[in-house]
Backbone:
């Protein structure tokens, strides 16, 4: 199973393809986010698929709109043949259920493997103070668990959450519920959080029950990305 997805958060398609090609032999998946997709669109996704046909792809666009709009957006990106797609759980049950149905219908129509649909709970760039300012006074743990249960009840494959909620979610929801966990920092630079506020090391997150880890700058920003990725993988074994 792919443990790590490397976040190629760049607008430069040539650099993204180069990094993906470098990392693919290690069994690392590729996360393509909003910045990359807005600059390169479906062509950018296909370029990664062509360069690394055996690498799973997580298309991290975090859809959040009225149910029909999100359902049609998910239907459109299902055609790209990626492995994971996501949306915001805070969009509500109707949005999530319609998106899941649209994804399954489109995959079946095109005879494609159906992607797994994940729901973002709370961005790892937010802490409890940030949440209080937007009216979520119960704090991150309570909100993550509420949205995780809602996602599970809507039949989605899993959630995107911070490492600090892994144990809580694992204790209350099924073991096969996917936990895609960003905000991961290797021990050598765990103190450098950038814009992430709820972080953890790879080994700690996997020990708690994370399914996949999303790691970006500790690999892509390293002087030697291949060596950085290899060292991180060693800490996960």
Residues:
């Amino acid at each position: 199973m792919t443990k790590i997805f490397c976040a190629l958060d760049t607008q430069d398609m040539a650099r993204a393809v180069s990094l993906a090609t470098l990392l693919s032999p290690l069994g690392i998946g590729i996360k393509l986010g909003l910045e990359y997709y807005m600059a390169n669109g479906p062509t950018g996704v296909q370029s990664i698929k062509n360069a690394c046909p055996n690498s799973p792809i997580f298309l991290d666009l975090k859809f959040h709109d009225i149910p029909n709009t999100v359902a049609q957006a998910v239907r459109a990106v299902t055609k790209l043949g990626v492995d994971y797609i996501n949306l915001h759980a805070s969009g509500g049950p109707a949005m999530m259920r319609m998106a899941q149905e649209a994804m399954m219908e489109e995959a079946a129509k095109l005879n494609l493997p159906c992607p797994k649909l994940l729901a973002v709970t709370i961005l790892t760039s937010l802490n409890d103070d940030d949440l209080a300012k937007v009216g979520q006074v119960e704090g991150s743990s309570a909100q993550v668990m509420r949205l995780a249960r809602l996602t599970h009840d809507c039949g989605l494959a899993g959630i995107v959450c911070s490492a600090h909620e892994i144990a809580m979610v694992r204790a209350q929801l099924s073991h096969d519920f996917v936990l895609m966990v960003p905000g991961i920092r290797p021990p050598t630079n765990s103190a450098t959080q950038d814009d992430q506020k709820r972080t953890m090391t790879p080994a700690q997150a996997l020990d708690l029950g994370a399914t996949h880890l999303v790691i970006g700058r500790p690999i892509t920003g390293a002087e030697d990305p291949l060596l950085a990725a290899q060292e991180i993988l060693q800490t996960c074994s």
Q: What stands out?
A: The mean pLDDT is 93.
